[in-house]
Amino acid sequence: MEFLLGGASSMCAVLFTNPLDVLKTRQQLEGELIAKQNPTKRSYRGIRQSLLTVVQTDGLRGLQKGLPAALLFQFSMNSVRLGTYQTVDNLGWTKSANHPSLTPLLSVFWGGCAGLVSATASCPFYVVKIQLQAVTSGSYTARFQHHHNGTVSAFVNIYRQSGVRGLFRGYPASVARLVVGSAAEMASFSVCKQLFLRYEVFQESIVLTALASSTVAGFFTSVLMSPCDVVTTRMTNQAVSANGKGLLYTNIFDCFLKIYRSEGIHGYYKGFVPMYLRVAPHTMLNLTFWEFFKGLHEQWRI
Fold first, then answer.
1. pLDDT digits over 55-70, tens only?
2. Nearest 5°: phi and psi at 212?
3. Which of 124, 222, 259, 298 could pair with 267 in a Cys bridge, judged by C-beta atoms 3.0 to 4.6 Å apart?
4. Start-end of the Solcar repeats (predicted)?
5. Which phi and psi angles does 240 have, rounded to 5°?
């Protein structure tokens, strides 16, 4: 049940945040490996211009590109991630009664472990989501676009071209992304929740506590996860050879190095604003729905 609650909460959240995820993906791929000293005309500069570009080229439906894959990704990722974390939390492994100072470290450790497991379960859906979100009918400066006719078509095309390995393209980067993100999110959420519950106003409202805690958790998550997120997007969307090998990046370290050499530190934070605007409310909605569903489950079970 813990796994179903985690998956259901994330699917509710992504319905509201997928448009920002589309903007983030487009910004991360625009100007790929082009030195910032030699900028070309950018179609996705800033939130407002990015939003207008998507609507003008793909219509309002463009803001929800890749939504079925995003729903599958969020369910597979967060059902495992939140379910795993809640399970170990129920077992008392995220807290130390004898050494309270170790509790934050235990939260980071188990949050990272939950991220590792969830990355494995959700990687194929993430690959499909990114490739669908990157496609546009308008002028676009991404190096490559994968033209699929839909979510099912994307799975079939990727498997035919590269086999199972294609569905796990960028897996090491995806693991790093979710391990860092989950550790930051779950640890900061857990610590903030304990801090806020010291005050009476939060003790009277589960939703208010979840909102406040997840807002802080979303900030730390977006700051720490952005470099890994950019690398994962780039590796996932790159063109591949006939035998399924990436034509631009050979591995996660090669991708990090090429981005730094061409775009500098700035390259690691492309799409940061829509990422934060997405991660913060998504974290808030996800963890709020999670707390709400857990409360309903406890009430129903009783």
1. 998 999 999 999 999 9
2. -65, -45
3. 259
4. 1-91, 102-195, 205-296
5. -125, 155
